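Cross-check.
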Amino acid sequence: MRYVLDAGAVLAFVIEKSPVDELIERSSTLMSPDFVVAEVMNTCWKLARADAALPDIDALLTFLSNVVIVPTSSIIREAYALARRLDHPVYDCCYAALAESAGARLITNDRRFARKLTDLSFDVAVF
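Predicted model, tokenized:
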């Protein structure tokens, strides 16, 4: 099966060994838009500024090296249309647009976004 991971899902895997780790064990295809790397590292920067516990950066980058990175430019039109339709930020909608175009399930911890997508019959899993 194919899965699109948002930044929260990536961090949860590395920090908490969340249910996302089962996806890895099944040798599924994991995908994310190209900006996921910057989004994840920005979260790490925010954690560092707050003197909070940081994930192992090497483990995080190793995990990301196993994710198929898709150019945002290939999904941006669909993401923008979805953002307008849902009244939701484009960057989140990029994850959903990628999932839809790839026939994949979106993995997220954003319950509000997932609820909006479920109303449109998107395949979404919330952890």
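The chain is about 55% helix and 15% strand. The chain has one domain: 2-126. Passed to J.P. for a second look.
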